[in-house]
Every structure is written in structure tokens, then in C-alpha cells.
Amino acid sequence: MTHGPVQILLDTDMLTDCDDAGALAMLHALTDRGEAKILGVAVNGVDTHGLHSAVVNAINHYFGRPDIPIGMSPRTADQTPAKPSTYAPAIFKAYPHDGLHDAERPDAIGLYRRLLAEAEDGSVTIVSIGFLSNLADLLSETSGRDLVARKVRGITIMGGAYPAGGEYNFQFGGTGPTTKAALAAWPEKVPMTFVGYELGEPVVTGKGYADTPDSPMRCAYQLAYDSIRQGRPSWDQVAVFHAVRELHHDGHTWFRPVRGQNRIAEDGGNVWVADPDGPDAYLEAASSPRDLAAAIEALMMAAPASRQEK
Predict the structure, then answer these.
(1) Would you state the pLDDT for residue 308?
(2) In the predicted model, what is the mean pLDDT of the chain?
(3) How many domains does the chain fold into?
(4) In a domain, 1, yes or no
(5) Taking a C-beta distance cutoff of 8 angstroms, is the pair 74, 42 a contact?
(6) pTM for the whole thing?
(7) How far is the C-alpha of 30 from the C-alpha of 217, rounded, in Å?
(8) What is the domain range of residue 93?
(9) Residue 187, preceding bond cis, omega within 30 degrees?
(10) pLDDT band at 306 (very low <50, low <70, confident <90, very high)
(11) Is residue 111 assigned to a domain?
């Protein structure tokens, strides 16, 4: 485990699914506990409403951290998946935020560069819970690869299926070549950990929002897939949980790593090549989905420390 709070840079699509909102809420709860610090949020994909970054800011505002920097993918709708966010318009209207539309925010690649340049060497953990376009664009230049190699201690990526298969973040909307480019350009010395579809799918959370005060997260779970009633798999939350708490926490082992290397096809499908001395790993569950869901949901539902103090 690391000493002091884990320095997190989150890369999220915050589009149609609500697990992104739950994952960001978790990060704030972990920050309230002194386990994490959110350096910034990079947003990938295109919301055809032009509002999904406002969801990020509304959640940050709800937790008393409205000044966390947010950057937007520079890609246009013909260069990356474009979808109407399930919940962004409602959250934009109903909750406090900075009022900015996506087009008014700074470039995510510039945000990456600035935050990494300001960080201590080997101190930043990236959590990717969306498409890999921001990472592909950052790593497309030698200076970006050098920054990652020097400043990043590791990345947890929600993407792929293991030991082989296909998954939304790696494949949707023709993103396979971008996925392949991002992972191929990643510096070998910086370990990658993958959270597959199969790991998060049985970890169902979100119904607890029915019993919490109104919030942007509760709104997201109401509007996306009726998740406040049915619950929703915790793909993105598992990635955040691992990025901050790693394999073990508080005497409990949550995950087992399978070491090796990810091979990515042009369409974004993946095959894991196992190698006990390999540079990277995907995660297998070392606890029951119910236990992991309970631990995750406790963080998702935690009241903001800023509101507890009032």
C-alpha cells in the first residue's frame, strides 16, 4: 500500500450509464476518509447535449470540491463515440454546478500535461472508466509518453473481458483502433491493471440511493436503466476501489492479480497472454460479489464530510 492519500486522475465518459456517477461519488468518499485525493477529471466521449462535464462538476460541488479541474476530450463526434447522456440535462437543470457547457471547458490533454507536470515523480494513479481516447492522444507524442513514464505509478483500466472477449469501453462505436493505440503506446515500466466486464457485472449496487437525500448521483441512478430500483453492475466502482485500496484493505483480500499482457485486436477485442513475470495484470475476485458490493455501496452512499460538519 502507498503512504498518504492516493493521488487520483480520473478519466470518465459520464454518458449513458450511472456507474460513472457512483464511481466519482466513491472517490469523494475515499477523499473524505483521507485515502485519496482527486487531482482532476478528464472527460472522454461526446455528449450530444454538451453537458456531461456539468454532471462531474455537480457531483464535485455536492461533495464540497467544486474547484477540481475538469478537461474535455478534444475529439469531435466523428472521431469518438457520441451519445446523448441519460441524465446530464436533468442534473444540469436541478443541481448546483459552475454553469459551463462541455465546449467551454479546457482540453483534457492539456489538463493531463499540467497535472502530471505538477506532480511528484511516480505519484499519480490514473483510473480509466471510459473510452481510451484521451490516453491515446496524450501518448501519441513522445513528451506525453515521457510524462506518464516519469509521473504515473500505475493505471487501473475498466475495459476488456478476461481471459478473452469483447467489452463496451474497448469496442463501442469503432473505438478498437484507439484502444489498441493507447495500450500499445503505454510506457512498459508503468504497470497496467485491468478490470474486466466479468468482474464488475455481478457486483450490483445503487438501490441504496432510494433511501438517501436527493443528489446528482441519485438522479443518475433514477434515470439510467431504472437502476435505483433494479441496481446496476459496478464496473467503474470496482476500478476505483482497486486504484485506491489495491488488492487488500483492512485485513480483507478483495482481488487476485493474473499477470501477463493484454493483446488487443483492431476491433478492440482482447486476449490475455498469461505470464507470471508479465508487466501487467487483470483482476479476479477474491471475495464474494455481495461482500464487494456492500463495501462499494457504503462508500457510494456516504454523506459528504462537508455536509456532516454543518
Answers:
(1) 59
(2) 96
(3) 1
(4) no
(5) no
(6) 0.97
(7) 16
(8) 12-308
(9) no
(10) confident
(11) yes
